[in-house]
Design brief:
Blueprint lengths: L13 H4 L9 E4 L3 H12 L4 E5 L12 E4 L5 H9 L3 E4 L6 H9 L8 H8 L1 H10 L7 E4 L2 H11 L3 E5 L9 E4 L5 H7 L7 E5 L3 E11 L5 E3 L3 E6 L2 E7 L5 H16 L5 E10 L4 E7 L9 H4 L4 H10 L12 E8 L4 H16 L4 E5 L10 E9 L2 H12 L8
Parallel strand pairs: 1-2, 1-4, 2-3
Antiparallel strand pairs: 5-8, 6-7, 6-8, 9-10, 9-11, 9-13, 11-12, 12-15, 13-14, 15-17, 16-17
Bound molecules: adenosine-5'-triphosphate (ATP) and magnesium ion (MG) (2 copies).
């Protein structure tokens, strides 16, 4: 099934052959959530055509895409069919059918980043093994297969102990914390048991979470965005501050670790590197996303080249753009569902109404068909002269909300 504005195969479409966009390549994106939507927005500015593959007819990216194939990005036949319509394949989610991407690559289909990268990243344990082999600093970790193994890990790493699902994790939905040995089995149960594939990480006593977006072009050139601070609420990214308020040395170390991590992966695109800054000024890698990321939403307003434009440039083989900031400071605030259904919409609209009257604020609404508690529904970006001013502005936007910043 395809939506009404779905394009015909490239070979049959004369218009496509004679198109003179910034790139003639149709970019196929696996996934059509808010990241896909913002890729479509960046693409429209350069007249690049983005096709999306997503099972939801009303997904965020659908109405802004050049074409929407309404089907699963985790099904082999579908991904193959989709690939025929695109000049390059990329992802906005890593939980895709990677075997098919590997097969397509062998047949000469251009996948960016490479299927090998998606394979490593979609399994968080495999990702940790990969980065440790490349000498990237990480919290200690080990695989667990039964409750005995979990106990041994607890003895080795101490408590609290972070237990994680290897696969299909996002927004903290594959994480459970055991505060002592007695909590191990309930934490494992909460993650669906050992059969899902679990591993543990030593608790990282971080003072800040940082993130660095690294872009790599098809020619291998790399650029790094300024280091940002991310603040999570219930394991979900909630606030991003750009630039991060850290000493010069930490800034350099975070950028170096991020660049080295991305250097160990193959393919073009933007990569987000999530990091922990510990009390003793160490930088530890948490995880990498092989795509645009929540920690880079503010780049739309605060950098010369947004992460979305950068990703498109990278995957179609254009020169990379300038990642530096064009405003002194920026704060991104995620609009998370406060409640299900209408009640949630009402609260979000009140927040947006206050942001509308705030200088330097831009509102992004993802147009998701359903409002759910904790769901990412949109975001607000503030830009301005100094972080202090922006913090005050965000505070007044949130002042009538049930929760407060920090
Ligand atoms: P995302 O939505 O970023 O993909 P995810 O579901 O993959 O999230 P993680 O990034 O593994 O989850 O963890 C979510 C958050 O949990 C982290 O940002 C951090 O705040 C906390 N966390 C993760 N691992 C650890 C750890 N080893 N020690 C302490 N806190 C941790
Ligand atoms: Mg993750
Ligand atoms: Mg994460």
């Amino acid at each position: 099934p395809c939506s009404s504005h779905e394009a015909s195969p490239i070979s049959e479409n004369n218009e496509n052959k004679h198109a003179h966009g910034v790139s003639e390549k149709i970019v196929g994106v696996l996934g059509g959530g808010q990241l896909g939507r913002m890729l479509c927005q960046a693409a429209s500015q350069m007249a690049i055509k983005v096709m999306i593959l997503d099972p939801s007819k009303n997904c965020s990216a659908s109405s802004l895409s050049y074409g929407h194939m309404v089907d699963s990005f985790d099904d082999s036949a579908t991904v193959e069919e989709f690939a025929k319509r695109c000049g390059v394949l990329t992802v906005e989610i890593e939980h895709v059918d990677v075997e098919t991407l590997e097969k397509l690559e062998k047949q000469g289909v251009d996948c960016q980043p490479k299927a090998s990268t998606i394979r490593i990243i979609q399994d968080k344990y495999m990702q940790k093994v990969h980065f440790s082999h490349h000498g990237i600093p990480l919290p200690e970790f080990m695989e667990i297969g039964d409750i005995e193994g979990a106990r041994r890990a607890g003895e080795l790493f101490g408590y609290p102990l972070m237990i994680k699902s290897k696969r299909l994790a996002y927004d903290g939905r594959g994480n459970a914390v055991a505060n002592n040995q007695d909590e191990l089995s309930s934490a494992v149960m909460a993650l669906g048991g050992f059969s899902r594939g679990l591993y543990v990480e030593k608790w990282a006593p971080f003072v800040k979470e940082l993130a660095v977006i690294v872009a790599r072009g098809k020619d291998g050139s790399m650029v790094c965005y300024p280091v940002v601070e991310t603040i999570h609420r219930d394991n979900i990214c909630h606030i991003v501050k750009a630039p991060a308020d850290v000493p010069w040395k930490i800034n350099k170390l975070a950028t170096d670790v991020a660049q080295k991590a991305v250097g160990s992966l193959e393919g073009a695109g933007v990569f987000a590197v999530e990091l922990f800054l510990t009390e003793d000024s160490q930088i530890l890698l948490n995880e990498v996303a092989p795509r645009p990321h929540n920690s880079g939403h503010q780049t739309i307003e605060c950098c010369y080249t947004s992460q979305f434009e950068q990703h498109l440039r990278a995957v179609v083989g254009l020169p990379l753009g300038d990642p530096s900031m064009r405003t002194p400071a920026s704060i991104m605030y995620n609009i998370l569902g406060e409640d299900d259904g209408e009640a949630g919409f009402k609260l979000a609209h009140q927040l947006i109404a206050r942001a509308m009257c705030t200088p330097g604020a831009s509102i992004h609404w993802y147009d998701k068909p359903e409002m759910r508690k904790q769901r990412k529904m949109g975001h607000i970006t503030l830009v301005g002269r100094s972080m202090g001013v922006l913090e005050q502005r965000l505070h007044s936007i949130l002042s009538e909300q049930s929760h407060q910043v920090d």
